[in-house]
Design brief:
Helices cover 39% and strands 16% of the residues. With 335 residues, the chain is α/β, with parallel strands linked by helices. It has a single domain, classed as Alpha-Beta Barrel (TIM Barrel), CATH 3.20.20.70. An eight-stranded parallel barrel has the order 1-4-5-6-7-8-9-10, surrounded by nine helices. It binds ligand PBG and magnesium ion.
Amino acid sequence: MHTPTPGFPNTRLRRLRRDDFTRRLVREHRLSVDDLIQPVFVIEGEDRTEAVPSMPGVERRTVDRLVAEAEALDALGIPAITLFPVIPAEAKTADAAEAWNPQGLAQRAVRAVKAHVPELGVITDVALDPFTLHGQDGLLDETGYVANDLTLDALVRQARSHAEAGADIVAPSDMMDGRVAAIRGALEADGCSETRILAYAAKYASAFYGPFRDAVGSAGNLAGGDKRTYQMDPGNSDEALREVALDLAEGADMVMIKPGMPYLDVIQRVREQFGVPTFAYQVSGEYAMLSAAFENGWLDRRACVMEALLGFKRAGADAILTYFAKEVAGWLTDH
Ligand SMILES: NCc1[nH]cc(CCC(=O)O)c1CC(=O)O
Ligand SMILES: [Mg+2]
């Protein structure tokens, strides 16, 4: 019997690339609408939207307009949204108390979406940066250092008020040590045992958050400051595994890596090591960078967005927070 010798010409990998039907049959990874989470910015007022100059195509919207948007996203099959309130300057304080105001913008937004589109998952951001005068995610001690344990009490109050408003998932994005345990404990004690925690477990001190800080209006408060004493150093990846292990031990249901494209290696390591639901955030700066190239006619919008998001899937992400979510959902359902 003749046994083909391994290698060329018996093996030709191009055979399976030749036709669309074989490419479809052997494709290993796919992007689906089930993978998408749409971040949304919410402002005070009525029946109004505002553009975000550094994020072309992204709008901040009032709660009534948010409800209409939530209906549209749900109709496209998007499983969940994540809410970011834009807090007026006069409501910002040193103690961030507006963060746990039951009548605060985030809390009202959650209640409105859950009342009108109950099947759409609602995720809230747990961190103090929109509410503090200095734009840091935590409270400062007398030396100006972000105080971990003092901040934990504030985060617990904030997470509790989100859960009480009806948030399905609370997502601590603050990078304090011990916050997942503190929040989980409080939610259990309050009878909110079904409220899920999506931990921003490996969140890097990234320059790619710039346009987000413009969108929520915290860039001016931060005034050139940075978050390097609590967000991760971009040079580290073993440390990301330790962060994830701790957040899982403390009760996180899902973990997130952020930003996305510059950290695909971290997504892959986390997914392989832990095998738990691993989310990725294609952040504002990634959106701005791609959008600028699209606006200049330098890159093809649809092809590049789809390729970038498929990269997250290939790295092992189970879901992706992306400002392109709505547009992508439209493409995925348009045959
Ligand atoms: N804790 C706040 C928060 N939650 C999500 C983002 C960034 C999201 C984006 O850039 O799209 C940030 C900004 C920051 O940490 O300064
Ligand atoms: Mg941590």
